[in-house]
Amino acid sequence: MGLHFTRRQLIIGFLAIVAVVVIALPQFLSQYWVMVMVMMATASALAYGFRFLITTGRFTMGHACFAGIGGYAAALLTTKVVENFWLALLMGGLVAGLVALGIGAVILRVPGLMFAIITMAVSEIFRYLVIMWRSLSGGITGVLNIKSPSIAGFNFGIDQIPYFYLILGILVVSVLVMYRMERSRIGLAFHAMRQNDPLAQHLGINIFRYRLLCFSVACFFAGFVGAFQAHYWHYVSPATYTVMDSFMVFIYAYVGGLMFPAGPIVGSCLLVGLSEGLRMAKEIAPLFYGGILILVIFWLPGGILTLPQESRTQWRKVRTFFARVRARAS
Amino acid sequence: MKWWLSVVIIAFFYLALFIGVACKAEEAEEVKEVKFGWGLPLSGAAGALLGIPAKQALELANEWIGEFTVAGERYRWNLLIEDNMWTGAGGVATATKFIYEDGVKFMTQSGADAAGAAQTIVEESGVLMDTAAAPMEFFGPDEPHSIQISPTYLVDTPVLFKYVTTTYPEVKTIAIAMADSAFGHSVGEAAIDAAPYFGLDVVAVEWIPVGVTELYPLATKLVNINPDLIICDVVVLKSMRELGYKGRTAYISWGESYGEYIGYEYYQDAMIYQPNLYGVDLPHEVRAFFVELEQRYGGEPTQDPYFMATTLFLLTKVLEKAGTVDDMDRILETMHTETFDTWIGPVHFGGEELIGVNNIMLWPAAIHEIREEEYTPVFEMSADEAYELAVEVYK
Amino acid sequence: MDVALYFQALLNGVLLGSLISLVVVGLVLVLGVARVFNMAHGHVLVMGAFITWAFYISIGINYWLAVIIAMVIVGMGGIVLERFPFRRFQGNLIAGIVAAVGIMMLIESGTTQAWGTETKIVGSIWAGSTDFFGVVMSNWRWVIMGVGLTMMAGLAVYMQRSKMGKAMRASASDPEAAALQGINSVTVSRLAMFIGCALAAIGGGIMAPIYGVDLAMAMPWILKGILAIVIGGPGSLGGCMAAAMVLGLTESYFTTFVNPQAGYIAMFGMLIAVILVKPWGLFGRPMPGL
Q1: Cβ of B220 under 8 Å from any chain C Cβ?
Q2: pLDDT by residue (tens digit) across B350-380?
Q3: Do B60 and B77 form a contact (C-beta atoms < 8 A)?
Q4: β-strands B271-272, B106-110: how paired?
Q5: What is the ipTM of this complex?
Q6: Are C148 and C19 in contact (CB under 8 A)?
Q7: Which of C6, C7, C117, C258 to mutate to test the interface with B (most CBs of B within 10 A)?
């Protein structure tokens, strides 16, 4: 055979096909399914940020909270100051990133489990602060009547499709930036930290600073997502960004596979699609969901994307078994 | 277990999913139906007390209506009832589903948080949204599609205060202890704004954070302040009574389970200031409906089923008079100008003086007191009288 | 100033504290001995409440018997949990938390399927209240405090004196040394899970008459438990019990003398203060393998 593609070419080709499908698909689907795609993209963006932090060996249980911070910042800007979506988006990211910088400076000094628990506490603190500061944040009702974005004179209105392209754009930008960072020298430091804290320190890597950078960047992009959501749902409220939502982000990333960059995206699409599809059987949906979770953590603890590896390993076992049987028979 | 089993299981899930979607597609056949989306709380405390009885009442009401005629064509209501969990997120999720997936033109969202969150989507898509327990800021000329058919606190609270100040002139101080939610704030702020007109002093306003279940610390504070009248629900009041509070109390809704929960000795002379399904002055048709409801489902008749059923009956009348099921402008115009014959008597919409547009339905107002375990009527005002009083009070 | 008011707030605080204790103790025990952070602990508590309700209301058994049955069933459930998700993921925090979330979902859907979504009401078991010198407490709340404090004391004694208790403590502070001494880590983990879940179940069952039974209770309680464990420190049972009491008293005093919101601000303020000064908690020691 004459055709022989390099692995890199195969991956790029695959991605190109995926890109074409993803961009074209909304034109053929009903509004409802485009809404589902928006949810998938949103979840992917958040999950990717979560996974980004994992590369340094820390996991956060408050990622949804930072999306919330971004969402509130954007919402308040749009309703009280000026109706400019790009500005709101930027504000969302900046505020979330800066808050992450400030909080991270304090809490990134503690080891893994305590850090995770503390992010949960931060999430709750944020929720209560929002509820209590009624005059600024609208209390438990939240900020309502956030107008649809209008970009370059095009008002988004209620059609789902433009929102999808918008979040797709945000997703692509977030992934590109974080992926490039991971592949760069900074990313090497992240991986070193994840594998062995003391060793990395002795090699001269300032693990605290790098972690702080990673955390701030991940939360910055979470803020983007929050700003988008504020304009998509036309409201923000403390009930949207709870610890449970952070758990979901965690799960999406985990189920996809934490070691793969594509993992969070695959996991999000899979699980969001599943939960939407299962809305027909609303009562037993959590049963299916919980069941899948348990299945994955038992048999594919690396996530769904380890399936090819696992299958290969298992296949090899099967072949060896048969080979032995044949050897014994002869 | 082998690794491939997990692949099989995942494949099985997706198969189930496809079958589910296929089945759903089959069900969606329409025969001259008008779809009506209902976002009700079907889980939690609100679900048990309000949402699930409301759902049952709606189904029975739909049976009572059967087919109705609009402009010579026969129609049936297709009720789509979903759980909005009484939260903003639930409101948005259900509203989005109703509008995008089901294509409804009429929707009700129970719960101020849910309704508030759904409002932008509703207004932008031109769907009519009825709410319950919403604060008055939700309504106005900029939100033409948001209406409230259920009774409003704005109109009922002044009636309460009028009764209290004329019958119990020794009451000078009042306190409010409601949940820190949009619903709680609707009730509370209506009272706070009405108090000055009647010369009542608001000495304490407590918003109870969501999730607080142990109320002794708060009750301790309130008992210490000792207001003459407190507006709160039976859960708060129980703690207060146990800690020695002897003052009067008022609340918007009543059910026999409330009395059993708190103990009637703690709830004597409590005032209830919105319509409920009890009392000798209940219209005959209403009583018959709820007797049938109780026989079928055995549930307790509370406010939500009453208001939701009335909403369905009323909207049927509105469509009949308007002569159309999808011309929203004509429907709204009919609503604003006509009087409708319902089981609580002839009613019409009002509100222009208070909120700028005639989007709230005016109910006859009555105050009841719990005497010897009975829901006893003690005071009443006609719908128009109550409304005029409200206009005077809030202007 | 009104002395009775101060004492009332004190009593209220002890009540809140004993409730939080019941939750945090299980959490600390499981974390220390079985080396897993049981995020589903709030749901375990609610399971205890559900089972108590089911046996007491649906089947009609004596209430106290129902609570004991709930305690046993949930405790056994804890042992199953230890065997299946938790032992496999000992030390692997991430997988442990995903497993816990899976368990939470299973519990949620299971209880919803079995018993529906509405809040369940367990009637009053012992109504009425006692009043001395202006300080009032409802009888049932006395029961809660009594049960809570007795359980705390009992557990403390057990951990200090009994053979298994000492084994658990040894395993918690140094698993390898303990294993070398012949302490079976599996047995000890199982016992810790049983006790931890049983205590949470008792908490849920005891709370049911006043607060009803509702899945919505699960998250707030685990979050309170987390506050207590972060402030007290993950390695220290006594420290977390003390932290629970302090949290309860704080919430009570601030709510009564200021307002409920201030109570929450104060609790979180304490959390932040402790983290800034002692990231491992007031009484905690850095735990190996975390």
Answers
A1: yes
A2: 888 888 888 999 998 989 999 988 888 999 8
A3: no
A4: unpaired
A5: 0.83
A6: yes
A7: C117
B68 and B173 in a single domain? The answer is no
Q: Cite the DSSP H helix spans in chain A.
A: 7-24, 31-54, 63-76, 85-107, 112-132, 134-137, 160-183, 185-195, 197-202, 207-233, 243-256, 263-277, 285-299, 307-329
Q: In 10 A of CB B377, how many CB atoms?
A: 15
With a CB cutoff of 8 Å and minimum separation 6, the contacts of C6 are none
Mutate to test the interface with A, among B1, B6, B27 (most CBs of A within 10 A): B6
Neighbours of C, requiring at least 3 CB pairs below 8 Å, are: A, B
The band of C45, judged by pLDDT with boundaries at 50, 70 and 90, is very high
Pick the closest to residue A67 from A140, A135, A167 (CA basis): A167
Q: Which of A31, A237, A282 sits opposite B88 (nearest CB)?
A: A237
Q: Which helix (H) or strand (E) holds B12?
A: helix B3-27
Min Cα distance A211 → chain B (Å) is 33
Distances (CA, A) of A92 to A69, A102, C81: 7, 16, 41
* Cβ-defined contact of C214 to B261 (cutoff 8 Å): no
Residue B349 placed within a domain: yes
| Residue B101: partners with Cβ closer than 8 Å, 6 or more residues away | A30, A31, A32
Report if residue B226 sits inside a domain.
Answer: yes
Q: Which domain holds residue A122?
A: 28-299
Which pLDDT value is given to residue B129?
93
Is the CB of residue C9 less than 8 Å away from at least one CB of chain A?
no
Q: Which residue of C has its CA nearest to B257?
A: C121
For chain C, give every domain's residue range. 21-215
Find the domain containing B43 and state its range.
33-151+282-363
Q: How many CB pairs under 8 A join A and B?
A: 104
Instruction: Please report residues of C whose CB lies closer than 8 A to that of A131.
Output: 261
H or E element that contains B276: none
**Of the candidates B305, B352, B346, the residue with the CA atom closest to the CA atom of residue B136:** B352
Share above pLDDT 90 across residues of chain C, in percent, rounded to a whole number: 18
Specify the number of domains making up chain A: 1
Shortest alpha-carbon distance between residue B125 and chain A (Å): 7
Q: What is the pLDDT of residues B47-91, one digit of tens each?
A: 777 888 889 999 999 999 888 888 888 888 999 998 887 777 778
Rounded CA gap, A117 and A103, in Å? Answer: 14
pLDDT more than 70, % of chain B:
91
Between B87, B117, B121, which is nearest A158 by CB? B121
Indicate which CATH number applies to the domain containing A86.
1.10.3470
- pLDDT averaged over chain B? 85
Q: C255: distance to nearest CA of chain B, Å? A: 6
- Over residues A121-133, the mean pLDDT reads 84
How many inter-chain contacts (A to C, CB under 8 Å) are there? 115
Q: Which span out of A312-316, B37-41, B116-120, C117-121 was modeled with the highest average pLDDT?
A: B37-41
Query: Which member of A131, A146, A237 has the closest CB to residue B209?
Result: A131
pTM: predicted TM-score of the whole model, two decimal places:
0.81
Calpha distance B220→B297 (Å, rounded): 39
Query: Residues near C3 by Cβ (< 8 Å), separated by ≥ 6?
Result: none
Position A213 in a domain: yes
Q: Are strands B248-251 and C135-138 parallel, antiparallel or unpaired?
A: unpaired
Contact (CB, 8 A) for A126 and A69: yes
CB-CB neighbors (< 8 A) of C106 in chain A: 286-287, 290-291, 294
